[in-house]
């Protein structure tokens, strides 16, 4: 059996399960117990563009490039609201726009642009990135998580981490970092560095007070922060934060995981472990990484039904895997396991541009 069977199965699920609908948009997840896709999400479609592009660059299978182009066209031709300069969260009657989602979509468009060179992808990516500062800014180094459209009023905040500013937002700010590399425009770098400084100042409090399911959800978001500081690991403060963060996530995952675990946390932790060593920081703890890879692989579904088999489910309670077959969990899972395979074979060469 091929060492990358997991990759082929995950790729087949993304291509053939119907999670990407005929419009090119990608559903938030598939509910296996009721045999139904959730609504199309612009954020998830942005992740899908990055994932299909990553798979194309790995395999040179044109089906992945075609799927990436279809998802990209949905974003640029259907979802993008040129008048507002934003991507609505879902194309619904009362749309919202998320700061975080905007950054994920920009990075997806850029991943496809690097392959195709299509000018519209870069133009809309730049417009969306600028709107993140023009409309979401809430104060010094703070961004509103959610705006109500079309008037762009800040949505009320609550105790959910996704409804408050926080260090996790730095993952969206990677879009600015990536655009600086592409365009050379210094404003993008200033915006990224500003939010990086604020996130480093405040990240210690992000996990405080959470427990149980809440802690697992926070671990997922905190991993976004660790991913987003990777471009600056040459700085002592960032390097120590990344090393300590990996240890912290690993500890909490061992404690909370037996009750409730998210597949994306295993994948995100494994990715930052491997990238930390690649950056010349902490050597990968192979025992911990092996356990995380094994736990992650168990979330990939073995099922004859093409709408399920090959996809990664979102979570597990005790020994019971949840019915949510999730495209982002699948994306993170296939990338983490592929990076682990490349690491074991001594072939891991990775740029944060490719980080889904």
Quick structural gist:
This protein is mainly α.
**SSE run:** HEEHHEHHEEEEHHHHEHHEEEH
Low-confidence stretches: none
**Beta fraction of the residues?**
5-15%
Which sheet architecture does the biggest sheet show?
3 strands, antiparallel
Please give the number of β-strands: 11
Q: Helical residue percent?
A: 55-70%
Summed over residues and divided by their number, the pLDDT gives a mean of: 94
Find the structural class using helix and strand composition: mainly alpha
Strand and helix map with partners:
Blueprint (H helix, E strand, L loop, with lengths): L4 H12 L13 E2 L4 E2 L4 H18 L2 H18 L16 E3 H18 L2 H17 L1 E3 L2 E2 L2 E3 L4 E2 L15 H14 L2 H17 L9 H17 L7 H21 L3 E3 H16 L7 H12 L17 E3 L2 E2 L2 E2 L1 H18 L12
Antiparallel strand pairs: 1-2, 1-11, 3-6, 4-5, 6-7, 8-9, 9-10
Q: Which terms would index this structure?
A:
356 residues; mainly alpha; Glycosyltransferase; 2 domains; three-stranded antiparallel beta sheet
Give a description of the structure.
With 356 residues, the protein is mainly α. The chain folds into 2 domains: 1-40 and 207-356, no CATH class; 61-190, Glycosyltransferase (Alpha/alpha barrel). It is 56% helix and 8% strand. It is built from 12 helices and 11 strands. The protein has helices at 5-16, 42-59, 62-79, 99-116, 119-135, 170-183, 186-202, 212-228, 236-256, 263-278, 286-297, 327-344; strands at 30-31, 36-37, 96-98, 137-139, 142-143, 146-148, 153-154, 260-262, 315-317, 320-321, 324-325. The strands form 4 sheets. Strands 2-1-11 form a 3-stranded antiparallel β-sheet. The protein has a 3-stranded antiparallel β-sheet with strand order 3-6-7. Strand 1 (30-31) and strand 2 form a beta hairpin. Helix 2 packs parallel to helix 4. The longest helix has 21 residues, at 236-256. It is globular, with a radius of gyration of 19 Å. The two termini are 27 Å apart. The mean pLDDT is 94.
